[in-house]
Amino acid sequence: MDLRYCPVCAKELTQRADADDGQKLRQACPDEHWVHWNNPVPVLAAIVEYQDRVLLARNALWPEGHFALIAGFLERGESPEIGIAREVAEETGLQADQVSLVGVYGFERNNQLIIAYHVRASGEVRLSPELAEFKLVKHEEISPWPAGTGPALFDWLRAQGYQPAYSEWGVG
Predict the structure, then answer these.
(1) 138 near 66, Cβ under 8 Å?
(2) Element (H, E) at 87
Protein backbone atom coordinates (compact mmCIF):
# COMPACT_ATOMS: atom_id res chain seq x y z
CA MET A 1 0.00 0.00 0.00
CA ASP A 2 1.39 3.39 -0.95
CA LEU A 3 0.55 6.40 1.13
CA ARG A 4 1.03 10.04 0.20
CA TYR A 5 1.16 12.00 3.46
CA CYS A 6 2.65 11.65 6.92
CA PRO A 7 -0.07 10.73 9.46
CA VAL A 8 1.74 12.84 12.09
CA CYS A 9 2.44 16.14 10.33
CA ALA A 10 0.68 15.77 6.92
CA LYS A 11 3.81 16.51 4.88
CA GLU A 12 4.16 14.63 1.61
CA LEU A 13 6.10 11.41 2.10
CA THR A 14 9.36 10.82 0.28
CA GLN A 15 11.21 7.65 -0.70
CA ARG A 16 14.30 6.88 1.31
CA ALA A 17 16.66 3.96 1.63
CA ASP A 18 16.05 1.74 4.64
CA ALA A 19 18.47 2.61 7.41
CA ASP A 20 19.07 -1.08 8.22
CA ASP A 21 20.29 -2.35 4.89
CA GLY A 22 20.08 0.55 2.43
CA GLN A 23 18.55 -1.77 -0.20
CA LYS A 24 14.83 -1.30 0.36
CA LEU A 25 13.07 1.96 -0.31
CA ARG A 26 10.57 3.07 2.30
CA GLN A 27 8.04 5.87 2.30
CA ALA A 28 8.99 8.26 5.06
CA CYS A 29 8.24 11.68 6.47
CA PRO A 30 10.93 14.19 5.41
CA ASP A 31 10.99 15.42 9.04
CA GLU A 32 11.46 11.84 10.31
CA HIS A 33 8.14 11.66 12.17
CA TRP A 34 7.07 8.41 10.57
CA VAL A 35 8.17 5.52 8.31
CA HIS A 36 5.78 3.29 6.39
CA TRP A 37 7.20 -0.21 6.84
CA ASN A 38 4.52 -1.85 4.67
CA ASN A 39 4.81 -5.16 6.53
CA PRO A 40 2.77 -8.14 5.30
CA VAL A 41 -0.76 -8.52 6.65
CA PRO A 42 -1.55 -11.79 8.48
CA VAL A 43 -4.31 -13.73 6.75
CA LEU A 44 -5.88 -16.92 8.08
CA ALA A 45 -6.91 -19.78 5.81
CA ALA A 46 -8.86 -22.92 6.64
CA ILE A 47 -8.84 -26.29 4.96
CA VAL A 48 -12.30 -27.12 6.27
CA GLU A 49 -12.96 -30.85 6.50
CA TYR A 50 -16.70 -31.44 6.80
CA GLN A 51 -18.60 -34.71 6.31
CA ASP A 52 -15.35 -36.42 5.18
CA ARG A 53 -14.90 -33.90 2.36
CA VAL A 54 -13.10 -30.59 1.93
CA LEU A 55 -15.32 -27.54 1.76
CA LEU A 56 -14.39 -25.06 -0.97
CA ALA A 57 -16.31 -21.81 -1.42
CA ARG A 58 -16.83 -19.25 -4.16
CA ASN A 59 -16.72 -15.59 -3.25
CA ALA A 60 -19.77 -13.71 -4.53
CA LEU A 61 -17.47 -11.45 -6.58
CA TRP A 62 -15.68 -14.31 -8.35
CA PRO A 63 -16.61 -15.87 -11.68
CA GLU A 64 -18.56 -19.14 -11.79
CA GLY A 65 -16.40 -22.19 -11.15
CA HIS A 66 -13.76 -20.42 -9.04
CA PHE A 67 -13.54 -21.96 -5.58
CA ALA A 68 -11.00 -21.60 -2.78
CA LEU A 69 -10.44 -22.08 0.94
CA ILE A 70 -12.21 -20.13 3.66
CA ALA A 71 -9.95 -17.22 4.54
CA GLY A 72 -9.99 -13.91 6.37
CA PHE A 73 -7.95 -11.44 8.34
CA LEU A 74 -6.61 -11.94 11.83
CA GLU A 75 -8.21 -9.40 14.14
CA ARG A 76 -6.41 -7.44 16.80
CA GLY A 77 -6.24 -9.25 20.12
CA GLU A 78 -7.13 -12.74 18.90
CA SER A 79 -4.91 -15.75 18.50
CA PRO A 80 -4.70 -17.27 15.01
CA GLU A 81 -6.46 -20.41 16.27
CA ILE A 82 -9.40 -18.41 17.64
CA GLY A 83 -9.38 -16.24 14.51
CA ILE A 84 -9.69 -19.15 12.10
CA ALA A 85 -12.51 -20.69 14.15
CA ARG A 86 -14.26 -17.29 14.01
CA GLU A 87 -13.76 -17.02 10.23
CA VAL A 88 -15.12 -20.51 9.62
CA ALA A 89 -18.19 -19.73 11.76
CA GLU A 90 -18.77 -16.32 10.16
CA GLU A 91 -18.42 -17.52 6.58
CA THR A 92 -19.96 -21.01 6.76
CA GLY A 93 -21.96 -21.24 9.98
CA LEU A 94 -19.90 -24.29 10.94
CA GLN A 95 -18.27 -24.92 14.31
CA ALA A 96 -14.54 -25.62 14.36
CA ASP A 97 -14.22 -28.80 16.41
CA GLN A 98 -10.50 -29.34 15.84
CA VAL A 99 -7.93 -26.81 14.60
CA SER A 100 -4.35 -27.71 13.66
CA LEU A 101 -1.65 -25.67 11.97
CA VAL A 102 -0.70 -26.68 8.42
CA GLY A 103 1.94 -24.02 7.84
CA VAL A 104 2.80 -20.40 7.14
CA TYR A 105 3.08 -19.17 3.55
CA GLY A 106 4.19 -15.89 2.03
CA PHE A 107 1.88 -14.36 -0.59
CA GLU A 108 4.03 -11.53 -1.85
CA ARG A 109 1.67 -10.42 -4.64
CA ASN A 110 -0.90 -9.35 -2.01
CA ASN A 111 1.67 -8.48 0.69
CA GLN A 112 0.18 -11.14 2.95
CA LEU A 113 1.44 -13.83 5.27
CA ILE A 114 -0.98 -16.75 5.14
CA ILE A 115 -1.35 -18.84 8.30
CA ALA A 116 -3.09 -22.01 7.17
CA TYR A 117 -5.03 -24.44 9.36
CA HIS A 118 -6.81 -27.73 8.96
CA VAL A 119 -10.23 -27.39 10.58
CA ARG A 120 -12.53 -30.32 11.29
CA ALA A 121 -15.99 -28.79 11.40
CA SER A 122 -19.55 -29.73 12.28
CA GLY A 123 -22.98 -28.19 12.10
CA GLU A 124 -25.07 -26.98 9.19
CA VAL A 125 -23.59 -24.89 6.38
CA ARG A 126 -25.08 -21.38 6.27
CA LEU A 127 -23.01 -19.18 3.95
CA SER A 128 -22.37 -15.54 4.69
CA PRO A 129 -23.53 -13.02 2.06
CA GLU A 130 -19.94 -12.66 0.82
CA LEU A 131 -19.98 -16.27 -0.42
CA ALA A 132 -22.10 -17.33 -3.39
CA GLU A 133 -21.83 -21.11 -3.10
CA PHE A 134 -19.81 -23.98 -1.73
CA LYS A 135 -18.95 -27.50 -2.74
CA LEU A 136 -17.79 -30.52 -0.80
CA VAL A 137 -14.96 -32.23 -2.64
CA LYS A 138 -13.36 -35.61 -2.12
CA HIS A 139 -9.71 -35.31 -1.16
CA GLU A 140 -8.50 -37.15 -4.25
CA GLU A 141 -10.45 -34.78 -6.55
CA ILE A 142 -8.83 -31.57 -5.29
CA SER A 143 -6.17 -29.90 -7.43
CA PRO A 144 -4.54 -27.05 -5.50
CA TRP A 145 -3.91 -23.74 -7.24
CA PRO A 146 -0.30 -22.51 -7.42
CA ALA A 147 -0.60 -19.23 -5.46
CA GLY A 148 -2.22 -17.80 -2.34
CA THR A 149 -3.69 -20.57 -0.19
CA GLY A 150 -3.06 -23.27 -2.81
CA PRO A 151 0.41 -24.29 -1.55
CA ALA A 152 -1.04 -24.90 1.93
CA LEU A 153 -3.70 -27.16 0.47
CA PHE A 154 -1.02 -28.93 -1.59
CA ASP A 155 1.13 -29.56 1.52
CA TRP A 156 -1.85 -30.75 3.55
CA LEU A 157 -3.00 -33.19 0.87
CA ARG A 158 0.52 -34.62 0.56
CA ALA A 159 0.67 -35.08 4.34
CA GLN A 160 -2.62 -37.03 4.05
CA GLY A 161 -1.02 -39.42 1.54
CA TYR A 162 -2.47 -37.93 -1.65
CA GLN A 163 -0.43 -36.91 -4.71
CA PRO A 164 -2.04 -33.61 -5.73
CA ALA A 165 -1.26 -31.73 -8.92
CA TYR A 166 -1.66 -27.97 -9.31
CA SER A 167 -4.51 -26.55 -11.39
CA GLU A 168 -6.07 -23.12 -11.77
CA TRP A 169 -9.08 -23.22 -9.42
CA GLY A 170 -9.15 -26.23 -7.16
CA VAL A 171 -10.97 -29.11 -8.78
CA GLY A 172 -9.39 -31.20 -11.52
Answers:
(1) no
(2) helix 80-92
